[in-house]
Design brief:
The protein is of the alpha+beta class and 821 residues long. 44% of the residues lie in helices and 18% in strands. A six-stranded mixed β-barrel has the order 3-4-9-6-8-7. Strands 16-17-22-19-21-20 form a six-stranded mixed β-barrel. A four-stranded antiparallel sheet has the order 15-23-14-24.
Length: 821
């Protein structure tokens, strides 16, 4: 049977009577002749059979130029694209050819051998690239390890995706921005458990438990959290001894970790053992496995929440544990049911907020849900009980590391393109013998990946050195992160190296792939990416621009940091040593310190202000419906004199016996403004009565405004109340001439008073410096990145200088060469 003739592929494009197309005209706007769309031409070359491609492409081009004359450029291009797509038929599409898998292995092996030879033949440039990439990769490895630690938080918890922390927000003073707290109302937790559907379990925690555990005659300091009986329903921390459902049910029940059990009882079985903390006897009802380091909740022991005597009240804004406004010490964690929509839970919380705030007498608080998996990487809120990392800081750190890596990639690109005269001959020969564009690209990317993997070996050792230095920046970093290696981190390291190799090699690969064989004798390094600016110049400018940005940020940040430390707080901190009493009676210590020649003055206070510590209470003036939270501190009669506060009206406190009733309060100017006391006149405000925590107190003095909180925060209404023994800190004015000897003498006194706790004493200026340690840490990181950026940029510039010096004699070698004319 005779075969069917091959179908006519171009019925309307060509015929014997078709006249020759007129000469294509130039565009009047650009002065250039329009051409068919490149992507359509490439598509045709991709799918068309080899024996048909030349004829079909020629006919399509002829028809394009005829339409260009008759119908214009837009219609010609459109018809061309339609024809290219229309002719993609079964008889025009070439059959796919499957290469032998062994060919791919051979090609990869060839890439590796060629790359190794190129690296060995160009030792100087390869060394510069490897060093630059190793330094930048080490920073990338550090970031990968850090991010891996962050995402490891709470990863061991079951049902992590269904656990939510109920946080709160409130406005302390009308007109201010709402303050977000990780803590919430105890009452809110009970109402969620009772009234909101779709909740599987609710755990209520409370901070503040701790003291000296007395076992026989031994005292050991311990700390922990209060937790209700539903704690282990929400959190899947395993118990090695005891029953999770009942371990925290009875009052004075205690669950301790394995490490704490060994610390308290040694090798003796801890179950059923009793210990005394602050005159209360507790019984160990459970032993939990040690809490993982990467856990948002850390504790040595858990005490049953029912151990708290609700009848005694609490030092909250209105004196009651179960008040809606008592949001400063309690924590609520909710385990949602499997089919519960988080949006419906959030809506139920909104309804609960509206109902309870309508009944609230004092400030209003609002509960909202935060997913447990987002706690580790979230904006820092007040009253956090675990480590959190701000996402903005995280992305900033990743961005800085990317810039450093990009700078090393620029070096590689620069040095690769700078050697265009030598490498272009190699590319030209490859193309002459039949190498395709994709093979040239593969060769150069493989070469950059090999260099990147070699850099990874050196980068790993640099990473081990940087890890120790990075963790030593802050004690908080040491507690929160380990940066230890794991299979996941190792895969990330290798992936980063390969990614950086591809990123560094893609531009040189494309650069050389487009070189034609006739260009091998030309200097291809003069390719323009912008008008009159060569590619190499652009990359060098970018590198040093990044370096200048880092340097400028470091200088500005350092000036800001020093400004914080030298800022006028409104009182003196010079040569003041603050000693934390840790629950001890300060009378003995004060008496002993008074006999020391290096001690000039002594005062006592509940807390150290301007270091981020806050203690507040609700205050009212004349209007019983108008209340506001004001900052508080309990001080003795010598505190204001020692710290040199400015008293603009009234008087200081006078010494009183311990059991004397509290009658007076000293306030700042901002508090007068908040309540408009005596029309903000300090002199007339003396004697006015205010109500705070149910007590009527008379204003006996007005202080010039000072910074109770940190410098970046606003000056808020503040009141100082009198106490003969505040119980928190002893403030000592010392002679700084021989500070080590003075500290040694004070340490000796402390050991006679407290044989359990070590001395906790710091200079006031050191505490303020520690308050702004996050800024110091950021400056160190940015300064480190600035140094790396400068070093890497200088390495690249050094390589360019060496190459130029090597290249210059070659131009003078043949003075009569026709290429010089």
């Amino acid at each position: 049977m005779a075969k069917d003739p091959e179908p006519n592929l171009k019925p309307h494009l060509m015929s014997p009577k078709t006249p020759k197309s007129p000469r294509p005209r130039k565009s009047p706007r650009t002065g250039k002749t329009p051409h068919p769309p490149k992507w359509a031409t490439r598509l045709l070359e991709f799918y068309c059979r080899t024996d048909l491609k030349e004829d079909l492409q020629g006919d399509l081009n002829e028809f394009f130029y005829r339409n260009l004359q008759e119908r214009g450029a837009f219609a010609a291009r459109l018809i061309y694209m339609i024809d290219v797509i229309k002719f993609a038929r079964s008889y025009t599409v070439r059959k796919p050819s499957f290469s032998n898998p062994s060919n791919g292995k051979v090609m990869l092996a060839n890439y590796f051998k060629t790359s190794t030879r190129v690296i060995m033949r160009n030792k100087l440039f390869s060394g510069i690239n490897i060093i630059g990439m190793a330094v930048s990769l080490s920073v990338g490895l550090l970031v990968i390890a850090f991010v891996s630690d962050l995402f490891s938080y709470d990863s061991t918890l079951q049902n992590k995706d269904r656990i939510y922390r109920v946080a709160s927000s409130f406005t302390p003073v009308e007109g201010m921005q709402p303050m977000k707290l990780a803590s919430a109302s105890w009452k809110g937790g009970l109402l969620i458990r009772q009234q909101i559907p779709g909740v599987e379990s609710v755990a209520i925690l409370r901070r503040g438990f701790g003291g000296d555990a007395k076992i026989n005659t031994t005292k050991i300091p311990v700390s922990g959290l209060y937790a209700d009986e539903y704690f282990f329903n929400v959190f899947s921390y395993p118990l090695v001894r005891g029953v999770a459902a009942t371990a925290l049910k009875q009052p004075n029940s205690l669950v301790i970790t394995e490490t704490t059990a060994k610390k308290l009882f040694g090798e003796v079985d801890a179950m059923g053992q009793t210990l005394t903390i602050d005159t209360t006897i507790y019984t160990v009802t459970g032993v939990a496995a040690d809490i993982p380091k990467f856990s948002s909740i850390q504790f040595e022991m858990l005490v049953s929440l029912s151990s708290i005597d609700l009848a005694k009240g609490s030092p909250s804004s209105d004196g009651h544990y179960l008040a809606w406004s008592n949001i400063f010490s309690n924590y609520i964690y909710v385990l949602l049911s499997k089919n519960t929509d988080p949006a419906s839970f959030a809506a139920a919380l909104d309804k609960l907020n509206q109902r309870e705030n309508a009944l609230a007498k004092d400030h209003k608080s609002y509960l909202w849900a935060q997913p447990m998996k987002h706690i580790a990487i979230s904006s820092n809120m007040g009253n956090e009980i675990g480590q959190v990392f701000d996402p903005i800081a995280l992305w900033t750190m990743i961005g800085l590391a990317f810039v450093i890596i990009l700078s090393a990639c620029f070096n590689y690109t620069n040095l690769s393109i700078a050697r265009s005269l030598r490498r272009s001959r190699e590319v030209g020969i490859r193309k002459v013998v039949g190498a395709r564009r994709i093979q040239v690209i593969g060769q150069f990317i493989a070469e950059s990946v090999v260099i990147s993997l070699l850099s990874l070996c050196f980068a790993f050792f640099i990473f081990l050195l940087l890890r120790t230095q990075a963790l030593s920046i802050s004690s908080q970093l040491q507690k929160a992160y380990s940066l230890e290696l794991s299979p996941r981190i190792a895969i990330g390291f290798i992936g980063l190296a390969i990614g950086v190799g591809i990123m560094a090699g893609i531009l040189p690969a494309l650069f050389y792939a487009k070189i034609k064989a006739v260009q091998v004798l030309k200097d291809a390094s003069s390719i323009k990416v912008f008008r009159h600016i060569s590619l190499r110049k652009v990359l060098v400018v970018f590198q040093y621009t990044f370096s200048l940005i880092f340097i400028t940020a470091t200088v500005i940040g350092f000036g800001q940091y020093k400004g914080f430390l030298r800022f006028d707080l409104g009182f003196s901190t010079q040569n003041i040593l603050n000693i934390r009493m840790q629950g001890n009676d300060d009378e003995v210590l004060v008496k002993e310190l008074s006999t020391m020649p290096a001690v000039h003055d002594i005062s006592r206070s509940l807390l150290v202000v301007s270091t981020g510590n806050l203690y507040g209470a609700s205050m009212k003036y004349q209007n019983p419906l108008d209340s506001a939270d004001v900052n508080m501190n309990f001080i003795d009669a010598n505190y204001l004199l020692l710290h040199q506060y400015t008293l603009i009206a009234g008087r200081n406190f006078t010494p009183k016996p311990k059991d004397a009733p509290e009658t007076g309060i000293i306030v700042n100017e901002e508090l007068l403004k908040r309540f408009n006391i005596a029309h903000r006149n300090p002199e007339k405000a003396i004697g006015e009565m205010v109500t705070i925590q149910g007590k009527r107190l008379s204003i006996v003095g007005v202080l010039k405004d000072f910074h109770y909180g940190t410098v970046e925060s606003t000056i808020d209404p503040t009141g100082y109340r009198y106490s003969a023994q505040p119980g928190g800190w002893v403030n000592v004015k010392i002679d700084a001439a021989n500070l080590p000897a003075t500290m040694a003498a004070i340490d000796g006194l402390w050991k006679h008073i407290d044989k359990v706790h070590p001395l906790d004493a710091k200079l006031y200026d050191e505490q303020i410096e520690q308050t702004y340690s996050v800024y110091s840490m950021m400056l160190k990181v940015i300064g480190f990145f600035a140094a790396l950026a400068i070093c890497i940029s200088s390495l690249g510039l050094f390589g360019m200088v060496i190459y130029t010096m090597e290249k210059t004699p070659q131009r003078d070698k043949y003075p009569q060469s026709p290429w010089r004319r």
